[in-house]
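[09:14] KT: can someone run the structure on this one? pasting the chain below
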Amino acid sequence: MPLYEHVFISRQDLSNTQAEGLIEHFGAILSDNGGKLVEQEYWGVKTMAYKINKNRKGHYAFLKTDAPAPAVQEMERLMRLHDDVMRVLTIKVDSHEEGPSVQMQKRDDRGDRRERR
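[09:31] RB: done, structure tokens below
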């Protein structure tokens, strides 16, 4: 089955448990349609670059999935209809990277970067 990565932003006025409950909810929708949630990460509340629906902040969540295209389309459709979800991004990938995503790594663990001037 194809591999996908999803990032979605939910409203800032949700509690952490409600935001994590959304991850479980959409993972269940995916598994009901024949897919599998490989890994999930809750990135927390982050400030956005611009306002979305009059919100400056949002709860970010990251999902790695192994699912057929119809299951992903159904999950995306339900995400877009959900009142608490503001934005959704889905990307098809060739393989999932091992370990935590770049967002969850400490700055020191990210490897060599150019020095600032």
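[09:33] KT: thanks! The two ends are 46 Å apart (CA to CA).
[09:34] RB: yep, looked fine to me
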